[in-house]
């Protein structure tokens, strides 16, 4: 059996949840989430169960543009009127993958890449593209 090299971790912040909620002026763990940004990498953490989340506004999410930036590589610009949880994109049966999916929108405008696995066009992607989020699914609105 080979020994793996030892991995090191460093705690850069440790705070009781109650203190974080107070500092953020958050009345409950069910109406806030943590967004962590470290250089170019970001992640988020729900503090409660999604089914118990409160105060989520309905987000109007619109595709602003789809443009080809390289052969079979497309930049999709999305605009949202509010924070949107669990946003997912779909292009039907068009084979390919998104740079991110099942994500949280915290900024008004974001860019996502779509890598197509066959020849297609920005117009075709625009026609097939659907955007859904937790608030849209819960309200039945798009």
How would you summarize the topology of this molecule?
Layout (H helix, E strand, L loop, with lengths): L16 H7 L9 E6 L2 E6 L14 E10 L2 E8 L3 E7 L5 E3 L4 E3 L3 E8 L5 H7 L1 E3 L1 H6 L3
Antiparallel strand pairs: 1-2, 3-4, 4-8, 5-7, 5-9, 6-8
Describe this protein's structure.
This protein is mainly beta and 142 residues long. Helices cover 14% and strands 38% of the residues. It has 3 helices and 9 strands. It has helices at 17-23, 122-128, 134-139; strands at 33-38, 41-46, 61-70, 73-80, 84-90, 96-98, 103-105, 109-116, 130-132. Strands 3-4-8-6 form a 4-stranded antiparallel β-sheet, covered by helices on one side. It has a 3-stranded antiparallel β-sheet with strand order 7-5-9. The mean pLDDT is 88.
User: Which residues sit in consecutive blocks of at least 5 with pLDDT less than 50?
Assistant: none
Strand content: 35-45%
What does the overall shape look like?
A: globular
Briefly note the structural class of the backbone. Answer: mainly beta
Summed over residues and divided by their number, the pLDDT gives a mean of: 88
**Spatial gap, N to C terminus:** 54 Å
The percent of residues in helical segments reads: 10-25%
Largest sheet: 4 strands, antiparallel
Computed Rg: 19 Å
Q: Which series of helices and strands comes N to C? A: HEEEEEEEEHEH
Q: What's the β-strand tally?
A: 9
Spatial strand sequence of the major β-sheet: 3-4-8-6
Question: Count of helical segments?
Answer: 3
